[in-house]
Amino acid sequence: MHIHKEGYPVIRWFLLGLIGLNLLVYLLSVKPAYSITIGSLSLVLLFLVVRFFRVPHRTPVTDDSSVISPADGKIVAIEETTEDEYFKCKMIQISIFMSIWNVHVNWNPIGGSVEYHKHHPGKYLIAKHPKSSLLNERSSTAIRKNDTQAVIVRQIAGAVARRIISYTNPVPEVEQGSQLGIIKFGSRVDIFLPVDVKIKVNLKDKVKGQKSILAAW
């Protein structure tokens, strides 16, 4: 396990802020207990921030007949819907909610060519909100393997998440299980699949990115 490259600037500035806060408390406080309390809380917060940017060492599932999970988290929606951003047809939407305790790196669920990528500014509703997929800041990537096997992965910001990083643009080809990007400080990932796929997960299932199989062609 290592720290994601996107985490180093955040950790550096967070650490400097905590050092400044603790120095200020030390200089102004008349009771040593205050400094000890603030120092202890600072260490806990620093640990949580560093932990958030962890990247696990995993060997991804590589199976042309399967769609693997693009994120760690819990399945909060499986439904047929109209994907009206790019494919503009009926598709199966699977939504994965990432809590602050989950790994927040995202991975490509299939290998193929990147046909479409677009970042949309938006709101910061709670990621579990039904409209967050359409109203929140989000980044959509369409990956096509062939004429019948194509998906859209949508990274969605939430009430706390404020930054979506995506590495698929302008990369023309991606491998299954390779890194798609990261959402800083938690949110949700939606994946849209053809309606004829065989769904392999259920609502409230916990899934692991690069490992769990969401569907089969």
Q: Architecture of the largest domain in CATH? A: Distorted Sandwich
Order of strands, main sheet, comes to: 11-7-8-9-13-5-4-15
For the sheet with most strands, the description reads: 8 strands, antiparallel
Strand proportion: 35-45%
- How many individual β-strands? 16
Total domain count: 2
CATH topology of the largest domain: Glucose Permease (Domain IIA)
What is the overall number of helices?
Answer: 3
Instruction: Give the termini distance in whole angstroms.
Output: 32 Å
The helicity comes to 10-25%
Output the radius of gyration. 19 Å
SSE blueprint and pairings:
Layout: E1 2-3, H1 7-28, H2 32-52, E2 54-55, E3 66-68, E4 73-83, E5 89-97, E6 105-107, E7 112-120, H3 132-135, E8 138-144, E9 150-156, E10 163-166, E11 173-174, E12 179-184, E13 188-194, E14 198-199, E15 206-207, E16 213-216
Antiparallel strand pairs: 1-2, 3-16, 4-5, 4-15, 5-13, 6-12, 7-8, 7-11, 8-9, 9-13, 10-12, 14-16
Helix pairs in contact: 1-2
